[in-house]
Amino acid sequence: MNKSERLNDMMLFLNGKNSFNLRDLMENYNISKSTALRDIASLERIGMPIYSQQGRNGYYGILQNRLLSPIVFNIDEVFALYFSMLTLRAYETTPFHLSVEKLKEKFENCLSEEKIEMLRKIEKVFSLAVIEHSNYCYFLSDILQYAIDEKTCKVKYLKKDTEQCYHIQFFNISSAYGQWYATGHNFETNSPQVFRCDKILGIAESDQYPSKPLSEFMRSSDILYKTKDATDFIIETSRKGVDLFYKEHYPSMKLDSESGRYFIQGFYNKGEENFISNYFIGYGKNILSIQPASLKNLIIEKLSVLKKYLSEI
User: Fold this and answer.
1) What residue ranges in 43-190 does DSSP mark as E strands?
2) DSSP code of residue 133
3) 42 vs 37, 65, 105, 222, 242, CA distance in Å?
4) How far apart are the first and last CA of the chain?
5) Which one of 30, 182, 243, 253 counts the least CB within 10 Å of its CB?
6) What is the pLDDT of residues 255-271, one digit of tens each?
7) In this predicted model, which residue has the larger pLDDT, 152 or 132?
8) Beta strand segments in the chain, E
9) Coil, helix or strand for 195?
10) What are phi and psi of 235, to 5 degrees?
């Protein structure tokens, strides 16, 4: 790698360390002592807070502060990061304590006037599709912190206009169709449960149940979500149905193709019949076949009820 690439990699290598020795850089990058010394001087010039400790057991220290060491990005990477950041404007709440406008201002302070003008022009002609998040989630950052700390918590939740309490260990936060959702392990039912984050009324650490390693929840959906009474399905769909699948699908589903034909395979648990029939109704004539027959009958029944309702209004 050339010098600029090496310096960029060094900043990543040293970030989070309290100290390092010259030999650490020499061995990690296969460079000479003189090159390592020049690289350290270059890191200091671009703002990395390095100081040297002299003596027999001398070393280089890195001052601890709340600012990340500068990382060198090329202009395409800068633009990609900038517009990814702007998608946060659509969220009423994020898990991070930040102001998007202040973040944008700091970002632009790192750019030349010429590059800022270029960004302004790109903003006029380039947009990213996002769904507005209109509901405020008071405990989103708490959920994130409990998840990464692998802690069990007691959750107060509004379900059907009634306050419910659960003992949960959260392991996933997702955003879909204008809502934040958090998935956690319910210790009372010993199964995953999904919460709409804006309906969480309170959250606090709990020691009633011992927490589990986060890695225990990083399993396939068949292992994590599927119950013994689940129903497997295979839906053949058209090429247009493939587009619908990629716009919206769930962990219990996957798409396979065979000889130019497309199949949505998955499962639904007992109690999810209404959800699964509503989902596939959205595919309309893009459904070419349905297995098992029980799922087909669910969809027909749902459509019959809808037809009756529409004929009466």
Assistant:
1) 50-53, 59-62, 153-159, 162-176, 179-186
2) B
3) 9, 20, 27, 51, 51
4) 71
5) 30
6) 999 999 999 999 999 98
7) 152
8) 19-20, 50-53, 59-62, 153-159, 162-176, 179-186, 191-196, 200-205, 231-237, 253-258, 261-268, 287-291
9) strand
10) -115, 120
Asked whether the CA dihedral 130, 278, 272, 267 is positive or negative, the reply is: negative
Note the pTM of the prediction, 2 decimals.
0.66
Q: What distance in Å separates the CA atoms of residue 134 and residue 169, rounded to the nearest whole number?
A: 26
**Exposed/middle/buried for residue 14 (C-beta within 10 Å: 0-12, 13-18, 19+):** buried
- Assign 185 to helix, strand or coil: strand
Q: Token pair for residue 98?
A: 């930040």
Instruction: Say how many C-beta atoms besides its own lie within 10 A of residue 110's C-beta.
Output: 11
Residue 162: per-residue pLDDT: 94
Q: Would the pLDDT of 66 be above 60?
A: no
What is the rounded distance in angstroms from the CA atom of residue 287 to the CA atom of residue 294? 15
pLDDT at residue 103 greater than cutoff 90: no
Contacts of residues 57-61 at CB distance under 8 Å and 24 or more positions apart, as own/partner, are 59/19, 59/20, 59/21, 60/19, 60/20, 60/21, 60/22, 61/18, 61/19
| Alpha carbons 20 and 16: distance in angstroms, whole number | 11
- The pLDDT score that the predictor gives to residue 76 is 80
The residue written with tokens 């040293």 in the block is: 14
Residues present in the chain in total = 313
Report residue 40 CA to chain centroid gap.
35
Q: Are 81 and 73 in contact (CB under 8 A)?
A: yes
Is residue 310 over pLDDT 80? yes
